[in-house]
Every structure is written in structure tokens, then in C-alpha cells.
Amino acid sequence: MIAGIAFWALAALAVAGGVAVFVVDSMARATFALLVSFLAVGLTFLLIDLEYLGVLVILMMIMEMCVMAVFMIMFMMNPGGLMPMTMVHNPRGAALIAAVVFVSLAAGALAVPPPPRRGAPPADPARALGLSIMGDKMLVMMIIGVAILATMIASVVLAVHGGRYAADRSRSR
Description:
With 173 residues, the chain is mainly α. Helices cover 74% and strands 0% of the residues. The protein contains 7 helices and no strands. Helix 1 runs antiparallel to helix 2 (27-47). The longest helix is centred in the middle third of the chain and has 25 residues, at 51-75. It is globular, with a radius of gyration of 21 Å. The mean pLDDT is 83.
């Protein structure tokens, strides 16, 4: 009962965050609305006992959205939303395409019967999913993830005017 209520609350939060991305008038606010949506999806994974995927989605989205917000604040002309802007281009066309895709997917979901279940679920579904996606390359992907994170941090540090020692030089003057 409580898990069902939590699921629907997280689903509503994920949809509300996704809608907010296109409603707010700031790139930074849109980034954090997208973060809320992804966090709700990650918590939904945790709710259905997919701990690995849930934690992975939560950690990756927090890092990705924070890095994205930093770059948007650095490079966007209107990061704080002080001037009105819209996140939707061609709203009529986008609404028409969205309606057609929604009706098609809903019709397909309702018209196609689910396949019969074969076999039993694995003891650890997250491990089984990871192995089916990456096979024996799981360790390689984890190492590459750390290398990508180090590259992002290094690029932000080096993007500062004067390099990584700019703050030290300004203090010594």
C-alpha cells in the first residue's frame, strides 16, 4: 500500500519535473527541474529493489546536472532568468508531434498483449541487468567513469582564466 503510494508520488514528481523544464524561464532552473525528475526516477528504481541502478541514476544525474548548471551559468547570456525566455521552439508543431507519439505509444501498449513469462526472475536483478548490458566489461566501464569525472573536473579547473594557479596569484599581489 505505502509502496504503491510512493510509486505514484514519485511518478507524479518525475512528470512534474519534466514539465517544469519547459515551463521555467531560466536555464539553471530548467537544469534543476530536470534533476528533480531524474532523482524521482532514481528513487523509483530504489523502490522496486533495483539498488544499483537507482544509486547509479541518482549519483550520475546529480553530478551531470551540477556540471551542466556550472557551464550554463558561465556561458549562457541569461542563466538566472532575469530576462524572459522560452524553452520551447515551434510549440504547435511540438504539441502535435507529442500528441501523435503519445497516442501511438498508448495504443501500442494497450493493443499488444504482454508475452508469457519464461523462467524465474534472477536472485539479484541489478547484477543480472549489469551483466547483460556490459558483460565482462563492468570493471572497465567503472574505471572509464572515474576517468571521465576526472576529465570534467580538470576541464573546469583549466577553464578558469589563468589556469589552476590563478587564485594563488591573485592572493599574492
